[in-house]
């Protein structure tokens, strides 16, 4: 009998990625709302909170989401590059949608979490953790 993992490996990986992401982002978004309500500009808040969230998520994604077996020094360098891209997308969304178009920053940041998560999943799967048991590309 086939399991979800063997029958739908990409779906299984997306679900695991989602579990790590939701847990990490719920806490981060709650802190973001708190600090922006009281004193910090939203772009400064994500500049402080984004690296903290990325760091805490690394081990969850490498071990749980992608079952990575390769060298962590190489994956960590790619992970940092990937998160610089994610951070850039996040700041760009805040700049365009909040600062220029005047959408509420709370909604823009919630949307940014979803958009950046999609970008990060693709980059994690094919660039950061390419030797994972579930990734179709093996080198």
Please describe what this structure looks like.
This protein is mostly helical and 139 residues long. The chain has one domain. The chain is built from five helices and no strands. The longest helix has 30 residues. The protein is elongated.
Q: Mean pLDDT score, rounded?
A: 91
What is the β-strand count? 0
Q: Given the structure, what is the number of helices?
A: 5
What is the number of independent domains? Answer: 1
Stretches where pLDDT is under 50 for at least 5 consecutive residues are: 135-139
Strand content: under 5%
- The structure class reads mainly alpha
> Order of SSEs, N→C?
HHHHH
Which word captures the global form? Answer: elongated
Largest sheet: none
Terminal Cα separation, in Å?
29 Å
Percent range for helical residues? Answer: over 70%
As a whole number of angstroms, the C-alpha radius of gyration is 16 Å
In a few lines, what is going on in this structure?
This protein has helices spanning 4-7, 9-38, 42-65, 72-100, 105-128.
Q: Notable features of this structure?
A:
single chain; 139 residues; mainly alpha; 5 helices; 80% helix; disordered C terminus
Which SSEs are present, and which pair or pack?
Blueprint: H1 4-7, H2 9-38, H3 42-65, H4 72-100, H5 105-128
Helix pairs in contact: 2-3, 2-5, 3-4, 4-5
């Amino acid at each position: 009998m086939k399991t979800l993992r063997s029958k739908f490996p990409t779906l299984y990986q997306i679900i695991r990625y989602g579990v790590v992401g939701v847990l990490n982002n719920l806490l981060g978004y709650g802190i973001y709302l708190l600090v922006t309500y009281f004193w910090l500009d939203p772009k400064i808040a994500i500049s402080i909170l984004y690296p903290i969230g990325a760091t805490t998520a690394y081990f969850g994604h490498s071990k749980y989401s992608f079952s990575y077996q390769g060298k962590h020094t190489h994956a960590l360098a790619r992970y940092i590059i990937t998160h610089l891209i994610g951070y850039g997308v996040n700041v760009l969304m805040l700049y365009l949608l909040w600062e220029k178009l005047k959408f509420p920053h709370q909604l823009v940041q919630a949307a940014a979490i979803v958009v950046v998560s999609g970008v990060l999943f693709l980059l994690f799967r094919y660039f950061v953790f390419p030797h994972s048991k579930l990734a179709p590309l093996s080198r």
